[in-house]
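Subject: Sanity check before I submit

Could someone independently write out the structure tokens for this chain? I want to compare against mine line by line before I put it in a report. The sequence has 307 residues.
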Amino acid sequence: MVGSVGRGLLVGLVVWAADLAEQAVGWGRHTVSGGSGGAGERGRTHAVDLSERGAADAPRHPWEVARARFFVALLAGEGCLAHERWLDVGAGDAWFSTQLLAASSPGHRVVAWDAFYSPEDLAVTPADPRLSLVADQPDERFGGLLLMDVVEHVADDVEFVRSIVQQNLEPDGSVLVTVPAYQRLFSAHDVALGHYRRYHPDQCRALLAAADLRVVRQGGLFQTLLAARGALVLAERLRGRATRRDDRGPDSPQSGQRGIGSWSGGERLGRAIAAGLTLEARASRAVARRGRSIPGLTYWALCTAPE
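---
Independent answer below. Compare away.
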């Protein structure tokens, strides 16, 4: 079983790298239009999250499946599901919200906030009545906030996080933040998704401290994929396609709609890759419980607001 999972993961890494490379050279197929009034810089950046969603009935990317398994288990294991009300910031198609609700009690509720939800998006009634979609920042407070792969899309990340914490977090609430790790891995793929930056763990911890958050658990995720991304960035630079600073951000001409919301590599391969990444993620969590961290493609931090 482990051997087949390992072989599937190895083959999957090749598919993954090829897919990222194809995305890197395919910037111009689609473009994201600029922001809408009212939400300002914060709202404009959320278009990128919507750009990463796939068709509603498409298989989820194994990276996304393993990621959801890891963070739902993390929140449950750390007692965070005692919070019954959650705000998913930059929620995109709200798939992670549905996974969180599936592991929660009937009394839980998730508000998925994305400033680029269209009227058509908001007119759809979610299958789970505990989930609601909004395009404007709620006024209410929540026991839990999810900021998953969103702050890298924002020019002023400190003010973005601080304002949400101040307006939407209950005094004893929890905040889960995930970011793409290591600026040295910034590539054409980041440009295509409208990222302003990637984060060294120290940089992300400084951001969270500046937003008046205290990290209670942290770690790296997707260690195997870190090597795959490094090889891709090296190949990109050898081809003379190093990313320029002024290419970055959601308004760059390369910013496109093609992301990782769906998977086209086949069901069996997808399951094998997700299983391999899930096993790796379990090891990452075991290390994190011991107060240590193994570098990965993603850095995550579970936080609370100081009393």
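---
OP: Matches mine. For the report I'm noting this point. The chain is about 40% helix and 15% strand.
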